[in-house]
Specification:
By secondary structure, this protein is of the alpha/beta class. The protein is 40% helix and 21% strand. β11, α5 and β12 form a beta-alpha-beta unit. The protein is elongated and about 125 Å long. Strands 1, 2, 5, 6 and 7 form a 5-stranded mixed beta sheet that branches. A 5-stranded mixed beta sheet has the order 10-9-8-11-12. It folds into 4 domains: 89 residues, no CATH class; 77 residues, Ribonuclease H-like superfamily/Ribonuclease H (Nucleotidyltransferase, domain 5, 2-Layer Sandwich), CATH 3.30.420.10; 71 residues, no CATH class; 64 residues. The chain contains 14 helices and 12 strands.
Length: 397
Amino acid sequence: MAAPTLLPDPACLHLRLLDASETMITAVVATTFEEAVCPVCHRRSARIHSRYVRQIADLPWMGCAVRLELHVRRFFCPNPECARQIFTEHLPSVVAPYARRTTRLTDIFVLLGFALGGQAGKRLAAGMGLATSPDTLLRLIRTQPEMRHPTPRVLGVDDFSFLRARTFGTILIDLEKRIPVELLPDREAETLKKWLEAHPGVEIISRDRGGDYAKGAREGAPKARQIADRFHLLCNLSETLEDFFLNKRTALKEAVHDPATPSPVQAESCPPRLSQKGKTKKQEEKSEALHQQRVQRYHQVHELRSQHTRVTDIASQLGMASRTVEHYLKMTEPPQRIRVTHRKGRPKKVAPFQEYLLKRWNEGCRNARQLHRELTEEHGYTASYANVERFLMQCAD
């Protein structure tokens, strides 16, 4: 971009007149070069053929639009064999041939287009006192030369959505320079394979857990080392820890000391767990229905996966989350039934009678109704039966 000066290029322009109105500033300028170079044969010429005026938009001054009235000349070419006998002097640092805006104004539009796009760029330009349209900004973006990047040593591969949850593409990123290097039209293994074959030299490929990317990377760059990206490493860690601790529920409960639970000596004589089956018929039926639904989903997921259906497509068809689908695919057998349990509470009104309840529990009495009746008739207990029941559930845990 040109240096910030009053005129686009003071070295080749001379300001003759400055005229201002309420909405526009007009600067009458002329070129200062005595000679011009023929664009065909590159011979210099000082023979002037004629003059004409170009109206060119420039950067605004204090919010007012600026127009350059540029007086340029035509020259005779001194080479009699040149195909162009008459040519116009070129000012590449000021304006492009046939353009109606200065080069520095075009550079500003290009920056706005790349940063904000069409509509947003047009709104910002209007606030800066510049007149343009969304189509102009997008057209300027398309005319810019495509940047060429060397083949990255560490390549990041991930998918993105052209149309949310419908049309997907692949973005390739140089992870060492942290810049995108290519956009692929889809996320197929064959497309990634062809790109890697056309750009040899990739040593490390960081990708997600998708099978297509793994296959494309394996076939397109067999010597490259494949690793999981940081996001999916954390996903793997969290899922592994979740599965591990879910299988260690009993050990975790034993390791945590809860003051509301019985002492270790009393807990040793307690049975391992009080069964919840038959406690509430409605809860039991709901638990059974949810379990059957999970088993059915498990078989549906594995059946679709056997047909080489993608995880995202399975999740879309069954109305499930992709993470849940992946969890089912890791399972080798249908999920076990999860029984309905009650949230543990901290009994308050039953606290003075805990010692008696623990004594009766260790004697083998497991009937909450009977214990509630004994407390009410013999010990003056006035609270509800539910408090006694919750306390017995804690003993069972």
